Amino acid sequence: MSTHYQELGVPADADAADIRKAYLKLVRDLHPDKTGGDPAKTAQYMRVVKAYEVLSDPANRSQYDVLGSGRLRAEAAGVVEKFGHAGIDAACDLLSAEAAKRFPTRPKVAGAAKSLAELGKDLGRDVLGSLLRKAR
Questions:
Q1: Which CATH architecture has domain 4-56?
Q2: First CA to last CA across the chain, in angstroms?
């Protein structure tokens, strides 16, 4: 099973412009009208479209990067079902508040655009992803 990044032929650290460029080239080459309806090419075209849907949206891409797809995503859905989005958001908020206490001034990092609260929420999602991976 390939990743969305592999479907588009880009590295996991590709920027949005590179992802879009790869997507446009692939859909042009794989479009069913161009390939004569070849079932294999049509299936690949659909995978490319799905990959771009996920990776072109920053929130979906972040979630995909943490949780991946398939089994881990299903397990995460079970966690959400058990604790609810509010419970997971509360855990992320606690991590964010703790990070703000420990690091009252944000470290200077060139090119960093995220606030400390956003970094705390990212950390919460990373922790959730790690816990789910360990639970397998």
A1: Orthogonal Bundle (1.10)
A2: 18
Q: Average the pLDDT over 68-85 and give the result.
A: 57
pLDDT at residue 2 in the model: 77
Note the pLDDT of residue 64: 79
Rg (CA), the chain: 18
Quote the CA–CA distance of 131 and 88 in Å, as a whole number: 13
Specify the domain boundaries for CATH 1.10.287.110 within the chain: 4-56
User: How far, in Å, CA of 60 to CA of 4, rounded?
Assistant: 12
At 2-19, the pLDDT tens digits run 789 999 999 988 999 999
Specify the amino acid at residue 75. Answer: E
Q: Is residue 65 within a helix (H) or strand (E), and if so which, with residue range?
A: helix 58-67
Round to whole Å and give the CA distance between 10 and 38.
Answer: 24
Question: Distance between CA 28 and CA 14 in Å, rounded?
Answer: 20
> What's the one-letter identity of residue 38?
D
- Which among 25, 28, 32 has a CA at the least distance from the CA of 9? 25
- Do the Cβ atoms of 55 and 4 come closer than 8 Å? yes
